[in-house]
Amino acid sequence: MLSNLLVVAGQVGTLFLMMAVGFVLVKLKKLHANVLPQINFLLLYVVAPCVIIHAMQTERSASLLRNLAIGFGLIALTYVVYMFIAMPFFRRQREETRSVMRFGSVYGNTGFMGLPLVQSVLGQSATIYAALGFVVFNIFSWTHGVVLMGGYKHFSIKKAILNPGVISAIIGLALFLFEIRLPPVVDNAIGFMANINTPLAMVVVGAQLADSDVLATFRRALLYQGAAIKLIIVPLVTALILLPFHLDPLLYCTIVILAAAPSAGVTAMFSLRWQQDSKTAAQLVTLTTLLSIITLPIFAVLAQYLSGMLSIS
Question: How many CA atoms lie within 13 A of 11 on its CB side?
């Protein structure tokens, strides 16, 4: 078990080394904060959709269709469970802080941390399940997440549907269901774009960490409460509630790994957009990201054992 844990820890460490590139570039003033929104746009509107479409350029089978349908329903169910988990916490905080802490406890960095880790730990064949998780994340974050941060007046079905994650999923699913294979020149271009997701996303996360006060972050007890919920309680509950369903091991491990991802970077973005406690949001994302180097390998290995992918011997 220890050897498997070290292997996964090494894979997580590789991601953090790529994050270190972004961190160092910002500190050396070779990468500036004013370009990060443009890189984020590239990732969200071009690279991530390419990942989703490329992942769905695979052979259709009855078992894969069944796994995708079951996975969609169960991932949606887990988000509902996360909402109830977060609800009793942070009641004594100001409303603008409470909304940020609850949002960060529910929504993980599925696209920038979860998806690359799934690819690294489980291989390319699990990418389609990670892409599915990213789609469900987009649906819930732009519905429940918007209400949580901005109130019902900012809720919009249009925004929940017309976002890059959902649109690319619809395109990819249509190609998958009708067994339409893209021309090699198009498929190769999409594949090359999808391949830059991991390094570019990690550089962006590292750059964002460099722009935060890490020492101040480690001194706030409130943030540790949020980190415990997001990094320990949420993935542990996910691993346990999915066990009775006897899922395909790749699907099970993917959902658990995504659940163990640190708080989503969109926590800070939403807090700025709707005038919530943006300082706390940035600190929560920073702390959970740094602590996830310890917790992610543990839950990745635990998921593989519980699913039967690894044995104790």
Answer: 23
State residue 40's pLDDT score: 82
SS3 (DSSP) at 313: coil
Separation CA 96–CA 106 (nearest Å): 16
Taking only Cα atoms into account, the Rg of the chain, rounded to an integer number of angstroms, comes to: 18
Phi and psi torsions of 123, nearest 5°: 95, 175
pLDDT of residue 1: 61
- Kindly report, residue by residue over 273-306, the tens digit of the pLDDT: 888 888 888 889 889 998 998 999 999 999 999 9
How remote is the C-alpha of 303 from its chain's centroid? 17
Q: What is d(CA 119, CA 274) in angstroms, rounded to the nearest whole number? A: 33
Q: How many residues does the chain have?
A: 313
Q: Is the pLDDT of residue 28 over 60?
A: yes
Q: Which two tokens stand for residue 132?
A: 């599915």
What are residue 263's DSSP bridge partners? 108
Instruction: Count CA atoms closer than 13 A to 107's CA, side-chain side.
Output: 32
Q: Give pLDDT tens digits for 55-98.
A: 888 888 999 999 999 999 999 999 999 999 999 999 999 999 99
- Local structure of 108: helix, strand or coil: strand
| Phi (first) and psi of residue 263, to 5 degrees | -55, 140
